[in-house]
Structure formats: C-alpha cells, structure tokens
Amino acid sequence: MIERSITVELEAGLQARPAAQFVQRANSFSSNLFIEKDKKRVNAKSIMGLMSLAVGSGEEILLVAEGKDEEEAMEELSAFVKE
C-alpha cells in the first residue's frame, strides 16, 4: 500500500468533467484506490464518492493505492490532478 498527499491543481478541482475523467482513469487499474479529504475516505473509482468530497482547486487530498499496479496508478492519478 502506498499513500501520497497531493495538492489538486486542476482549475475546476475534482468537480464534474475532471471528476469523471479521474474516475475513468482510476477504473483502468486493478488496485484498490481511495481518496481521503478531511478524514473522509471514498473509493476513487466511484463518481458519487468523489463528488461527495467536493474537492476544489488548491485543496489537499490523500491518494491511497493498494494492489499489483499501485505504483503505476499512483503516478498516473497524481499527474492528472496536477495538470
């Protein structure tokens, strides 16, 4: 299992379209993926879970990956929120 704190740099944060794109990318990995914000943890492969966090630009999240492709998932998803 690996964890990384990331500051979301997307202009719109993880709302609407960016959230859908993030979830789509997360679903391409077999690892279990979670996002944590303000002590609330959700499945990163769930659009409803991600939207419930209301992650805005400049906010910090904790990305957690566990599984056989965890490192690849962490790199791709970390890069995505920094675009």
Write structural notes for this entry.
The model has no long low-confidence stretch (mean pLDDT 97). This protein has a single domain (2-81), classed as Histidine-containing Protein, Chain: A (2-Layer Sandwich), CATH 3.30.1340. The chain is globular, with a radius of gyration of 11 Å. The N and C termini lie far apart (24 Å). It has helices at residues 16-26, 47-53, 70-81, and strands spanning 2-7, 32-37, 40-43, 60-66. A four-stranded antiparallel sheet has the order 1-4-2-3, covered by helices on one side. The chain is α+β, with helices and mostly antiparallel strands.
Strand neighbour order, sheet with most strands = 1-4-2-3
What is the 3D shape?
globular
How many domains? Answer: 1
Q: Please count the beta strands (DSSP E, at least 2 residues each).
A: 4
In CATH terms, what is the fold-level topology?
Answer: Histidine-containing Protein, Chain: A
Class based on secondary structure composition and strand pairing: alpha+beta
Span between termini? 24 Å
Number of helices: 3
How much is the average pLDDT?
A: 97
Helix-residue proportion: 25-40%
Which series of helices and strands comes N to C?
EHEEHEH
Radius of gyration: 11 Å
CATH superfamily: HPr-like
User: How is the quaternary structure best described?
Assistant: single chain
Q: Low-confidence parts lasting 5 or more residues at pLDDT below 50?
A: none
Q: In the CATH classification, which architecture applies?
A: 2-Layer Sandwich
CATH class: Alpha Beta
Q: In what range is the share of β-strand residues? A: 25-35%
